[in-house]
Amino acid sequence: MFSSQTSSFQDSIDVEERDEFDSEDIAGYSQKIQLNCYYTIYLYQGTSLTLIDSSLPSEAEPELRTYISRRLSKGALLGGMGNIATVELSLPEQAIGCYCCLLEQERSPDQPDADGNGYVICFMGGSEKGLNLFRLELDKYVQGLHSSLQTPELQNLETEVRPYLSRWYEESVMHIYRVVQLVQSNISFLLHAALSHTHVEVTNADERTKADVSRFIKAASLQGLSQQDTTTASLCKAMSEDTQSDVVIDCSSSPPTLTNTVSNRFCDGWIQAFLNAAERCNPFLLRQILENFKLKAIQDMNSLKRFVRQAEMSHYALFRCCQFLQGCGNGDVLLQNARAEHSDLPEACNIIAVLDEFLGEQAQA
């Protein structure tokens, strides 16, 4: 049983061998932190697109405009919802991932025909698969531009809009990479904090670093996984019942000092995968590893729930529960979750109490 668990765990970590990122994808990020990335903003009125600003080479922008026009004519761009695809442009990369979003203008009594008018924002860089991993971040970043686009004739283009568009890759994609670079092998403490819903405080750091860590914790937590709402809510409840000290990251020294840290074998097992991806300077691979980390945690939670139900009727199943908890390395988090989910089921609570005692004995052995 332990060998099969180990194999499954290793499969989750070894995303370099998976289809999500083939060898060509990885090679493209192995030499530099930031790949070539571009932005373009168009004014959309009726059926026409008017270029406002772009960082694309002059020969590539008309090709993008033709592509966007086709998408709009087919109704493929909905207001406020990003669309990601691969486009072929006159660029060194030739084929490149492209995120497009239509920001519709707010209608007013003076402009009854403004429906459908607005701005089309395009971000290009990496691959379609890579950008899809950051769809939520890109959607949020585009929405942050909304207020700046209300200025008549975009008089703030050079002072606000252009600088904002130019930072899309740094702000929407690179935050996970920056956090791994910041804490290095201590990343396991942040992973455990995310799973256990422990607050992380960052001191003696700039606002960007604080925001990066907060976004990393949110991305690594199990909240927001729609198919696991019950599991996630139970975990939140379980952890909130315990008095836990905040994890503190003190950035007054380099490397930063972390206090009140907790980890386990499960979280420690992912350290090298994160460090390897960071060494490749590949933020897309880092995000895929993070998603695999969460998926494995959810799978283990579901396995334990199944074992607990079986253990109510079988001593052998209870033995399998003990084996599973000993092998998975994430027993503390899993039991907290199980305790909350089964709090109104006496038989299950008895099983969990036995498992808790077993884990305690193993820790002291």
TrEMBL record:
GO CC annotations, alphabetized: trans-Golgi network
GO BP terms: vesicle tethering to Golgi
InterPro entries xref list: Njmu-R1 (IPR028280)
Coiled coil region boundaries: none
PANTHER family referenced in this protein's UniProt entry, alphabetically: PROTEIN NJMU-R1 (PTHR14416)
The name this protein goes by in its record: Protein Njmu-R1
Source organism of this protein record: Poecilia mexicana
Organismal lineage: Eukaryota, Metazoa, Chordata, Craniata, Vertebrata
